[in-house]
Amino acid sequence: MTSSVNIIDLLDYAMNVQASDTILSAGHTPRFRVDGQLRPSDTNEFPTLSNEEVQHIIEGLMTEEQARELHHRTEFDFARENSRYGRVRVHVARTGARLMATLRIIPRDIKDVKALGLPERVKDLLKNERGLLLITGPTDAGKTTTIASLIQHINATQYHHILTIEDPIEFTYESSKSLIHQQEIPRDAADFKTAVRASLRMTPNVIVVGEMRDYETIRAVLSAAETGHLVIATLHTRSAAEAASRIVDVFPSDQQEQARVQLAQTLIGVIHQQLIPKITGGRALAYEILTANDAVRKAIRENQGHTIANIMRTANMPMFDKSLAFLTQTQAIREDVAMRYTHDAQEYRRYFMSR
């Protein structure tokens, strides 16, 4: 069957309203996530979709092989190159007998870290030849976009071999000073842990891991960082200070002490970020940056992760609440919005009043 909704019209509308996601769900009209909020179209131009229409739209973006595989999978991730928009990332899932899909347009242009709202000092972390750099935050925090910016900076400034491991590939790169290879799960490897282990035989200088989802992947990442590679990976955490405990807690209890030692030796830093709705529309980046100094490494090694946030303050590292306060002071975001995202409301107010 054909659908009454055209994929071009959907993506055109998403581009026009700067939606980060387009959600298609059988029994509902298409919804668009704009500035973090999910809403229907303003013009009500899209009808309620049947299950068959959702399937038709999804299959229109798939290869024949992917369309066949869809019938045997409960969820499916893929990305499709589109001459009009760039790449479109699609996540398909089943809810009972119904299909739903989340579409995300990946821009062709990769912004510099400063254009994203991060400080130039972030680039200093990339001068390390080995170790682990984490990009953390909740879902839809711009982590993939930040990683793309970091990769592009390395590509433009250093003669390295960069290997990315993704599910699916989102941003694409042209090799410049660096040589870049991109692997996609499960096309090129069964899973992240297998790809990270196998990557060492490809002699990369930099390994980028799309997401550390399980113990085996985290263990492989720590091993790669320990054996002379710069590893950049994402992790879901609520703060930069929480990243260490989040990693160690994945390990069985009898392996956690060794994991703390490995992490203390390999961690370079943590960039934690969130996207905050702006007064004028769009979203601003709030961030904090943990640099793994001697005090941080000692805290990790001695299982004193609860002291890391205070170490960051003492060392004058960029703190999340300070970033929020600056966005409020410059009238980029409203104070009531900032308060919804604070890590510590009193600390936020102290930063806000200190200007």
UniProtKB/TrEMBL annotation:
One of its GO terms (molecular function) is ATP hydrolysis activity. CDD domains: PilT. It comes from Deinococcus soli. Residues 87-279 form the Bacterial type II secretion system protein E domain. This is Twitching motility protein PilT. InterPro entries: P-loop_NTPase, PilT/PilU, T2SS/T4SS_dom, T4SS_GSP_E_ATPase. PANTHER family: TWITCHING MOTILITY PROTEIN PILT. It comes from the Bacteria. Belongs to the GSP E family.
